[in-house]
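Q: My labmate handed me this sequence with no annotations at all. I'd like to see what the chain might look like in three dimensions before we decide whether it's worth expressing. Could you predict it?
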Amino acid sequence: MLSTGWGERPAAIVFLRYFGCPICRQQVIRLRLDRERFQRAGMEVVLVGHGGPEDGRRFAEERSVPYRLLVDPTREAYERYGLTKGSLLQVFGPQCVAPMVRAALQPGCRQGLPNGGNLMQMPGAFVVDTSGIILFAHRSATIADTPTTDQLLGALGDARRAA
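A: Here is what I predict for the chain of 163 residues:
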């Protein structure tokens, strides 16, 4: 259940396009490398994918994912967070091609099969506090538009300073 991701501490909820997406794989590597930063900030990271349970398990094992990975085969959570299918321009447009190629050339980020996912699904990320309030919402404008760790952690820091 997604809401358990922020029960004890704030969470960054990261919705992936599909498990074979090179940009998503690159993002997971970056999140994994920044694990200590999230821990120091007291923030949980929860990844959400929309293949089946076996697809998620395989992805987590192959990518050494240190975070909880939830699967949403019906994409119900994606819809609730306002993450829709993208247009051709959002998925295959000029702003997407170079980042996709750069990501696919990195070790561990090569293009994979959709594995039950949808190539047109748009990614996004949200920071949610322990009471369920969304502190940061990033609905990607293109598939190459992913938030940085600084943006995710900054949203939590801003909320703490405001309190």
